[in-house]
Amino acid sequence: MDVILFLVFAIIAVVCGINVVVQRHPITSALSLIGVMGSLAVLYLLLGAEFIAMAQVIVYAGAIMVLFVFVIMLLNAGAEETRGKSLVAQLLGLPLLILFLAFASYFVQRFVPSSTIVHFGAFKSGTAQNIGIALFTRYLLPFEVTSVLILIAILGAIVLARKELDR
Amino acid sequence: MPADFVPKTIDLIRFLPEIILTVTGTLLMVLDAFAGRRWSGVYGNFSLLALAGSLAAAVYAFGVPGPAFSGMLMNDGFATFFRVLVIAVGILVVLASFRYLHREGVETGEYHALILFSVVGQCVMVTANELIMIFIGLEISSIATYILAGYLREDRRGNEASLKYFLLGSFATAFLLYGIAWIYGLTGSTNLAAIRGVLSSRDLAPSGMLVGFSAALMFVGLGFKVSGAPFQIWAPDVYQGAPAPVTAFMSAGPKAAAFAVFLRIFMTAFEPVGAGWEPLVWLSALLSMTIGNFAALTQSNIKRLLAYSSIAHAGYVMVALAARSETGTAAAMFYLAAYALMNVGAFAAVAHLAGKGERFVSIDDFAGLAVVQPATAALLAIFLLSLIGVPLTGGFFGKFYIFKAALQSNLLWLTMLGLLNSAVAAYYYLRILVMMYMREPGEAASVAEPLSIGMKTALVLPALGTLFLGIFPSAVLNFASKSAALIR
After folding, report:
1. pTM of the entire predicted model
2. A112 reaches B (C-beta below 8 A)
3. What is the ipTM of this complex?
């Protein structure tokens, strides 16, 4: 059952991923990206990472994609114009892709040890409670210091984007 | 909640320098929002006070060494050395900024808040004992610097510098983060000591190929931050476009902090696989020195020239890293201290002479400076001589210790090529000296304003520091050696 679910959603993720690149219209690409994010969330859930799955849906598929779509609409981006594809890309694209995939799978087979501990249902501590406890105990300092990071990002946006330095 | 996770007083004391800076930075933002231009003269003094306070706190925290916040930070001699260094750079940069900001009419609390936050990031980086903390500290420091580079919004070169720095910098950070993810996947930990434990154990050690890959990814990320070749391409454009005091800042503070992280990660976590990364660092050191020095020969813009020189200096520090020894680490620490002082000083002099809108940043504009402003010329001469590596300056002993450490580790070729390189470098620094002392004053020197108090301090302090390192090097070197022994 787990394996079937994995295969289904993994295939959806890959197909949507390819679709993001293939589509001409940015909105269609953005919608395909939501498909990728959504199926990734299911994969996280299958691995027992409940919190990350939820965060994936809320933050990535929700908030960030809304921003993407907003920007696309603000810029009023139309369908991409096709230009003549370069000969190099046409000739070498597919062989290089296959070579890369072959190399990647060889690499995984050869060097990555068989992961007996990573199987469905083995990992149970991905709940919001566990993550909350980790964040507020062991990882308290990184959690707090991240707020400084966000603060300067906001400060930077104000410094660079406000209308006029009041002279 | 487990009681031992509640931050104890000792944790807070070990983190006190960062707390002081963060609180003051936030206060500055609030003050700026309410008081605005009316208090524009105050912000700088306020941030100087905070930096001085955190310098004292860093020294005080050294009295209670040890880990803090469940091992996230390691407050040891190494951390204290670099904390003091980056805070000192912050102080000098604020001093050098007073007049510059006034001239450009952009005195705001935000500028000083950004400097303070960037120093917080660097302090976190050099104290961090965890890849997560290193990453967050690096991001704080970098983002603040990206913004500072484009602080003069009307300036097109500044905009270009900021955007370039931001895009390439985020790309490099992604490499670092990817490397962190890999090493976490391989060893199950982000703690440097724990990673080292796994890598050096016989049965747990993961495949060397994968470890090498993650080390290489981190090397790319950090190599960018220290502007080591072949990741140095951004440096000249960014250093040229950013406001001169900011250039002084980013060529010293973030670079020293990034090197501290470099040393900590590669000398602790990746120390067991040292033989694997040594050739990489060797090559990068040679490329940085050669590209930096030879490209600097043909520059006519002083900021670009110093940018290439800073690439070359990153190369020298990499030589110390390639030595993979305690003496090498100590030499790198000493060199970074000397380099930070002389570089901030040199850029402060550039900021002083640049004039409104940075009109005078060509080497020819230094003509006859010794006639018009003998004191400024003499101070700049000290920095340039130290950058060359003339005896009685910090730069000399920095290079001396680095090449000594390299020879001890049998890096004969790298040492010889490095020495040849520093001979080449002498030429372009001497060009500026000749300009200052042997030419008639040009337009730039004749309209140069007298040294303000802030600028005077920002030039005299690093000059004294450079001379101190050149005459009494053993005081600092002994401390560096002791601290270098700790991080292994």
Report:
1. 0.91
2. yes
3. 0.87
